[in-house]
Write the structure tokens for this entry.
Amino acid sequence: MRRDDVVVRGVARPLLDASVLVAAGLVVQGYAEVGDGFSAGMIVALAIALHYVGLGARRTEQALPLLRRAPALAIAGLALALGTGFFPVVLGQPPLSHRPAPGAPVVTFGSLELATPILFDLGIFLLVVGLLTTLLHLLAGRIDESGPDGGSR
């Protein structure tokens, strides 16, 4: 084992935990300002990529079993984002009209105000994480098949 592998392995898990917290903050920001589900998804996907680099595909997927559901996460995120964006059309309003309307009472969960922009950002987050994790899985599988030196096994 090389010295830099030990560093990557030691940093990968705490960085993933911190990345999830930062991503949650970016998504929840949507109730007060424009949220950023795409950036949140990229942050988490990059932390997962670091896991793949440090631990390899097999050990990463053993440590994070949720990664096996990445395609389902992408589909759920796409459905949530599309549903949130186009549901107002059914009601005769423009796409991406958010609920509750300005000035209407907002449902709260603690100090978090629940509104459709959060659902939209959550959908984008799930879509980005699901797609990028699926791509990482496919690329890691190709690397495992060809071996570490790039030649076929």
The chain has a mean pLDDT of 82. Strands lie at 107-109, 112-114. The first strand starts at residue 107 and ends at 109.
